Amino acid sequence: MFYNKTVAIYLILITSIMQYGCSPSEDENECNDTYQFPNYDDEFEADNNKILSLQILSGNDTIYSIIGNSETFNAQALVEYSKTTHYTNSGIISQAEYIKIDKDTLIFEISSSNLCWHSSDENILEVMGETMEAKSSGIVKLNATLNNIQSNNIYINVSSSLAPILDVYNPVHATVNNPETIINGRVISKSAFNLTINGNLIEVSSFGTFEENVGLNMGENIFEMIATNNDALGLSTNTRRYVTYERAAPVLEIDGLPVKMVFEPQSIISGRVIGHNYTLTINTDTIDVSSEGSFNKIVDLDYGNNIFQIEAQNNDGSNLNTTKSVTIIYLSFDDITGHWKGETITRPFSFDIYKLADQYIINGTLTVDLTIFGWSEVVEDIVVIGLINNDGTIDAQLSKEASEMSISGSLEGLFSTSGLAAGSYTLSFELFGVPFSHTEEWTAEKQ
Questions:
Q1: Identical fold at 165-245 and 334-446?
Q2: pTM for the structure as a whole
Q3: Phi, psi dihedral angles at 45 (to 5 degrees)
């Protein structure tokens, strides 16, 4: 019996109205844990679905609350849809049955009312249908279930304080090489309040969340955050965060190998830079960099060796920089024509490269030692035939037919210079009806 699983495609589908769901029964300690997801037939008519994971949507793993507050959370469910199709292949002698399983996944946002909620201590946090009410001081674990799948855990820290609760998510005390950073978090209070960072009034959303981009001076930066109630008592809560700004050279990453050979008069140098306020140059030419830090530059080549110096340098006067070198060897296909000899792990082999019409052909033979599989022979004269692609890569097929075996496979590789090449090959073969597969690396030198 054979199975064929299609590649899963991840789509995001946010549903605003759910017609079916999990809801409390008359006994609030019981929950009707059943939920029907909508039919999915964009690609196929699924005959089954199941939840793979369930994640509570919250800003943090620990949520702060005050006695008397009510909390409500949605969740995100990753759902797998599948369809099973049976095929029967009837022959003269035998009949084979095949099963094909098509699968796809969707992401749904599930409202709080459709989830079954579970509090580790109802005296601290009481579940009241879709809402959780803070009853007394303490820390409680909260999770949800849907169709018998349990979500992740979050923790609710309930306080009896009349002062605001100030929960700063970021930054934790940190060292950065960027002259600015983001401070964000949440304020919880029974009264109207103001939030300041180093004396500057900060805008806070109706949910109590805030996010502020702040500049940094060289060295240690101290940020004091104060949340103050606007009532007659004027109770406040304050906390501090420390961020150290140190200059550092940009991080420079180059795609591909530092030395490569091509057969065209142009090539591409690409990569990415991680840093802030820098200039990127290739051989003194300034290069444009995307907002994500990536770059892609077409360069002209002279025949032979072409050396490119890539440098990313800070513009803050520190002259801190990172430099990398790329060598691109531009050759003609005629430089690689001729007879080549090489070797694999088990046996030597040879091939010729020649021009036929407008294409360059690789043609040779390979020897494989099959004694490593318990076979008593060394198989010679396995045919190697293929093309040298326009980018200089080798793409060849392997084949040999004999009375007791059939061998097929592929060989690939590339040239490091006009006289050196390397790659790998893979063989698939049968010995007395038993299938085998074998992969080896190879190197070769032009004679």
A1: no
A2: 0.50
A3: -90, 100
